[in-house]
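Class, look over these structure tokens:
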Amino acid sequence: MKKAKTFSLGIALFMVLITTSPLLAREINFYERGPYKPGIPRPEEMLGYAAGENFTPHTELVRYLLTLAERANERLRIVPYGKTHEGRTLYLLIFSAAENLARLEEIKAEIRRLSDPRMLTLEQATALIETTPAIAWLSYNVHGNEASTAEAALQVAYQLAAGEDEQTQLILHNCVVIIDPLVNPDGHDRYVYFYRGQRGVEPNADPNAVEHLEPWPGGRFNHYLFDLNRDWAWQSQPESRARIAAYREWNPQLHVDYHEMSSESTYFFFPPAEPIQENIAALLKPWWERYGRANAAAFDRYKVRYYSGEDYDVFYPAYGDSWPSLNGAVGMTYEQAGGGFGGLVVELGEKRGRLTLRERIWHHYLTSLASLATTGQYRRERLRDYYEFRRRAIEAGRSGRVKQYVLLAEPDPERTARVVEILLRQGIEVSRAQKLFVAEQVVDYTAQTQARKEFPAGSYVVDLAQPAGFLAEALLTQEIPVKTHFFYDVTGWSLPLAAGVETYALGKAVSVESVSLSARPEVPGGLIGSTTPTAYLFRWQSDGAARLLARLLAEDYKAYVAVKAFTLAGEKYAAGTIVLPVSDNPTGLAARLAELAVAEGVTVQAVETQWTEEGIDLGSRRIEFLRKPKVAVVMDTPVNASLYGALWFLFDYQVRLPFTALRAEELSRVNLDDYNVLVLPPDSGDGRGYDRIISKNLRERIGSWIRGGGVLIGIKGGAVFATRQKAGWASLGYRYVRKRDEERRLAEERPPQPEAEAPPPQPRQLSKEREAEEIKRKLLRWEEKEEVERKEEIPGTIMRLKIDNSHPLGFGYGDAVYVLNNTSPILELSGGGDNVVSYPEKDFKASGFLSEENAAKLPHTAYLVREGLGRGHVVLFADTPVFRGFWDGTSRLLLNSIFFGQVGASGRPN
């Protein structure tokens, strides 16, 4: 990104302020900004060590901050705002001048009015801005092993609590500063106690020392191994939900997210890299430049190295920089070298020397104060542009290409309700139509335009002419077009596609008789029908049905699934309907069903007869028995921690499906007969991790277990490992998207030959066109090679695939399903098995970036395959069907594989 070559007068004055009395590089003094108020303890006075001499556990950090709030109560309030999965309390520190703290509720109300330009005119907003402090929010340690950030929060907190210098006074009088000192306490403590348990009397700077090498899963993630910095928009985790609720209470104008990166780097601050979402670029680019120059001036004073404009973009909406930016704040990411590898000190070689924790803390301390001072200095302008951002969002909603989105409640009202809840939690206004209505200029997510369409009562409407309109558009639009090939994260995330919710964009706004929603819509459920039933039925079209079945099987009730459709008492029931015969179950079934059906939001129908009007009867062999799942999931090295975490969260938290986590290295000691489903989650994505830990003998044991009736589910690298080129449990093969990976695979699979028998190398016979391509590739400029390699990736792209919904693994779906491809391996179609989900010949990309070269590799390949092996089955997913806790649209494919993995096996009864 090009940077302006001129300084504003304000920045120039600010540079004069912070560049007096320069110090030598690495000469660190956190208390040079005095004088300080007496009686307020410094961190080392309570912790027993100076900044950088140790890592601080959550309990000690909280103990110090509570004491600080008690001793500095004229400047500081500390408030709990939530709890983690492991029960640790999350706190916010609220700093400001005494006169501001005395009217905090009034300030919040004024900012709330400023956040909604529909509530006041520009003149009223201007008058309000004159008397209102700006809200600046600093978030530390969202990744638990980036632990210098929480230590920096302690130093910044002391400076704001005790500092009497001119800069601190400017900040306190012009701002309300909110500090979240430890966003991810569970991951942080996992890292801190690991490090404390491994270091000796003195820290070891050798990068090979154990204290620099965290064991699996590392401290980056929260309890369920979620990356909280990718959860802002989806709020799947309690830490995220609590943080967003607190954020919306304050509506800040600045949000800085403090991170660490590889130890070999320096320090990154904004401006960001491209791509940047267009809606936020115009007003925020000048501010990113302004804050960047302020940080540069602070670093230049101490001769600290830094960079900007590279690596970190503002595109994916669920980050701690992009999500606040879409709400009108100046959202920014700051990255310090170090991370979990850094320890207290690490040797980086002759060029870089040693990097200490004290330096890392110092750098974050400098940018924290520089960013706060900039906010204080430009308070009026920041508040003005915040108001203007949200005003423009309203205007864009009125005049843009899309005016409204309509989400249909059916066929899974619960899943649509969950999408609505995600939107409401972020302050996005949603209403529910009370009557049928007709809209014009309607476009569905397959890009099919309709002149007019009827929408039923109960449909949800999101009008983009609202203050959060830019955020709503970012989450609901099918695709955000970009010109670059360089992305930091996934490029497709459309919430309706991820959730599998039928959604339409309206090019012409309609007036709908509706009610505004303030909470998640209720999804009713219950037991209805005969009081003298012979069986109970419920349809397999909702996530609630999966939860209900999981609970019933866990409690040893006997359930069956209809492999064919039928009609009973005038009601049509599709394949996948769950049947609970009264004769097979204890007398308490009715009472338990009545309780669970309400709890899970599922309608259960009690029927008097098993005689149907059409289709199979309820005693048919095609009503197949469902065995109780006894699920084992492999974890620990070499499994991808966050992708395992998504499985763990689905089974344990969302569905309450009992499972046993097995350490990969202990697999050889496990009696596999204790389980009937074994899940191999993704490893590094290519199966090589499983190559290392699953021996030939263990492969044979797992193969025998499958032949005896087990269901092996392989996902991404787990699927690759099951193919014929590796473990050989499945007959189909695989290849890679990226050329270098495919070349490595071919080299590894080429059988070695005795040296004497090796034939002389033969030149490849290429067509003239292919030969020209090869020459062009070899003569690429060095800088062009990176772009070519990027194009070989599929960076989190949404694909619309064909699904066989007559197959048990496809039960509950329509004729298409949206999946995420994140440079997943390419699975061949199975010759003798079932290709349940596959790529069509063309037009499968729905959202995100996909190069023409990769688009040509995917037609007629598999996403989900089931093959029989003896009396068991192998189920293979090309990519993960669960992603970051919000990709609900494919999660039931995985649950189908567990519940119905053995159903419909060549007509054989189980």
Q: What stands out?
A: The chain is about 35% helix and 20% strand. The radius of gyration is 29 Å. Residues 94 and 388 are 26 Å apart (CA to CA). The first helix runs from residue 9 to 18.
